[in-house]
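Entry for the shared binder. Reason: the reviewer on the internal report wants the predicted structure included alongside the sequence.
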Amino acid sequence: MKELTYVYDVRSAWNRSFFAMAAHDLGMNFTGGWNVDQHYQWDPNVNGEMADIEDREHGVVNLGRLNQTEFMRELSDSKVLIGVGNPWWSPSPYNALCQGVPFLNPVSISM
């Protein structure tokens, strides 16, 4: 994800503590590159401040917003790209698959 707001959206596939819990249970790190912008599709005066999900002590690392070259380099070193379900139109899964990196695609069925 490129913006922290995506894990606060109701469409997010994972609760915000998922990555730290999974890192602990699996004994591996989760690395991402997201921006923490309290005003990107968010109103902190109405919704409260968003707490960052980065938890380096527990294996969740935020590299910050990456440019395309940095993102592709990090992606190529990944074992898997995990989607968060938002935004649904992200090109990142295609970039991963083109580099041979599997993509875990969360599927949500609305009724």
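Summary line for the report: The mean pLDDT is 93.
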